[in-house]
Amino acid sequence: MDWKFLQGLLSGVNKYSTAFGRIWLSVVFVFRVLVFVVAAERVWSDDQGLFDCNTRQPGCTNICYDYFFPISHIRLWALQLIFVTCPSFMVVLHVAYREERERKYRVKHGEDTRLYDNTGQKHGGLWWTYLMSLFIKTAFEVTFLYLLHYIYDSFKLPRKVQCDVSPCPNLVDCYIARPTEKTVFTYFMVGASVLCVVLNVCEIFYLIAIRVVNLKHRGSAHASSRKMPPNRSLFNEELKDCSYL
Questions:
Q1: Could you give phi then psi for residue 175, rounded to 5 degrees?
Q2: What DSSP character marks residue 158?
Q3: Strand, helix or coil at 55?
């Protein structure tokens, strides 16, 4: 799977992210995507071919492998990486929407006018979009961690499994290739995923704290603006409300 396309898209998200968001992107690419592409894919490259059962009954080995591994770790992690990175594009799309509004506003009112001080500044609708993307990413991370544990009953891969699914003639022993190495990679990927969840939660609290501080400053500024002439104050409020989308 080619991850360069995804990396190119997410690089545009970096400039709109907070410090926690930039750390999250670094963790995703260095400790997850890079490890996934360089090492983990090779460990599971011929997993089914090396899955060995002590029987020569036709179809028994394939059925037992499908029973114990309904979905490969690699494919599950690939889906997880795609799902947890896609919500970040919501921020990019919202910024693109703001830039288009800014362009139309300048065409209508002149090149010297501005609707936004900074189209990438996280306030108003963009703040909510960014916060929503964090909640969605966190939900996906927790869901996939639960699925991984639910499907395999544990993050540790056993050396031997026993299978009596038809067409196996009786209870047969099956052996997993490189179980220790796969267990190490599984714990590593789970740890990186947990770290990403922690970073997302920290960023959520950070955004809410910054929002509360800004609202307090806006309340103080609004109290002082009452001393302004009514028409001018009304015009400034309307322009501010328009730019918060």
A1: -120, 135
A2: P
A3: coil
Examine residue 167 and say whether the peptide bond preceding it is cis (omega within 30 degrees of 0). yes
Own/partner pairs, 201-208, CB within 8 angstroms, 24+ separation: 201/138, 202/20, 203/18, 203/20, 203/21, 203/24, 203/134, 204/131, 204/134, 204/135, 204/138, 206/18, 206/20, 207/18, 207/122, 207/127, 207/130, 207/131, 207/134, 208/131
Q: How far is CA 18 from CA 130, 200, 206, in A?
A: 10, 11, 9
Structure tokens given for 115: 């609707």
Amino acid at residue number 116 = Y
Rounded Cα–Cα distance for residues 14 and 22 (Å):
6
| Helical H segments across 58-178, by residue range | 60-68, 73-85, 89-109, 125-152
Read off the pLDDT of residues 14-49 as tens digits, 9 standing for 90 and up.
777 888 988 998 898 888 888 888 888 888 877 778
- Rounded to whole angstroms, the Cα distance separating 39 from 168 reads 34
* 144-183 pLDDT tens trace: 999 999 998 888 888 899 988 888 888 999 999 888 999 9
pTM higher than 0.85 for the full model? no
| Alpha-carbon torsion (25, 31, 35, 40), positive or negative | negative
**What's the rounded Cα separation, in Å, for the pair 217 and 28?**
35
d(CA 179, CA 231): 74
Q: Give the C-alpha separation, 114 to 117, whole Å.
A: 7
Rounded to 10 degrees, what is the CA torsion of 80, 142, 189, 37?
10
Q: Which pair of structure tokens corresponds to residue 142? A: 């927790």
